[in-house]
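ENTRY TYPE: paired fold submission
RECORD: A
CONTENT: sequence, then structure tokens
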Amino acid sequence: MKIAISFIVAYLLGSTPSGFILGKLHDVDIRKHGSHNIGATNTLRVLGPVSGIISLLFDVAKGFFAVYFARLLLAGYSGGTSHILLALTGLLAIAGHVFPLFLKFNGGKGVATAAGVFFNLLLIPSIIAFGIFILTYILFRYVSLASICAVIALFITEFIINLPDFGEWTYLVFSFIIMLLILIRHKGNLQRLKQGNENKL
């Protein structure tokens, strides 16, 4: 029962569309403006920096606290089982943002929510990934490119940390799955970057 509760809470928390809600407070459906995405970047473009920052913080927080709640609820589990349950909880929180129940499963790209999940699960790789994100953004001014570089850096860092015995293989597999998900969600951005017509921020 506790496992089911943690999974349901994670998905519903992830499904809470902060950008969409903020847009409605301004009588704007952000799905009809900018990139038509409900994430923090499009929220910033459409509604301005204050709403963008609020959306970003909320999306990060829902990933972080989905895992935090699961840690409390599933405290009786340990070792590999704990890692698997926490990784699945994080996956459901991210899936909730990407495929939100409240918006007919059409959501964002999952970067901010994934950041929240990984800051809870994998602190050192997350810090390195955040540094790569900031550096890439400063150099090129593309949020999409910075996000892609960050998630790749997170996986590579977690891979190196796991050498040589792969003691945290569950989190390594999890980070690989999320990297693939985010790369797939950025397929259009990658094409625009290649063509030279991706929007800067």
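RECORD: B
CONTENT: sequence, then structure tokens
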Amino acid sequence: MCEFCTKHGEGKKWYLNVKNYSQDLVSDINRREYVRGFFYGVDRGYKKYFNLIKSLPLNMPIIGPSLKAILKRRLIYTHWGQVIPIEDVEKVLSITSSIVRIPCICRKVTTGKEMRTCFVITIKPESIELVDQSFFGGPDVAKFEKMDKTNALNFMKEQESRGLFHSVWTFKTPFIGVICNCDDTGCIAMKMYKEVMPIFFKAEYIIKLDKNECNGCKACIKICPFEALEHDTVDKKVKVDYKKCCGCGICRAVCKKNAIILRQRLSVPEAAHLW
């Protein structure tokens, strides 16, 4: 994304640029301090920060859009994400050489429950030191599970059937350190997205629905985390709201008719500039 101020990689997507996972970025002292402060500060500061942002006049004409632009710019250069489909998850995993599953920091903070749905992804195994597992309840090595690419990918495919979508996140952009599997159960990013403002980009894709194949079963409507699908009472089929669709593609996992495919967002005029 040109707006993201990062150079595209071999796959013409910023998250497929090998340099964005490099050890040089991980070794930066300021970045390591930022990550440490992020993990230990989110527990104490999440509610305060969230309530502060909600108190801002973000919906006021002129003032609101300006404030959102300022907040967005600041977050983009610190901690920002983008939705990616399972095909691109596989490509990201092929770039990285260290894949470690850890408990979800969002759910720990918001619900107190442990769900191991996040993956620290780096070029060098020692980069896992960026995340201190004591934050998740002491020096329990089992909380950090090193996984190979096949098992990690299969795990994330399984999450799709449960309604979780995938996203990549930076720690002081452009360094990409985590793949998350998110939904409404305690995810801070989703809470921000629905109640305040997006803190992640939509995917580089958007779905295309084949109405000739769709039988109107509504399974995709129920699983869509962004409420981008609805039932058309006229033809008894499903229709897509391009303004809401984030292109995660998880609706495909429950479509028994294979009526849904992904296509490039830029190829759809209605959605080309909706990030």
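NOTES ON RECORD B: Helices lie at 23-26, 29-55, 63-76, 86-95, 105-110, 149-161, 188-195, 219-223. Residues 205-267 form a domain with the Alpha-Beta Plaits fold (CATH 3.30.70.20).
STATUS: closed
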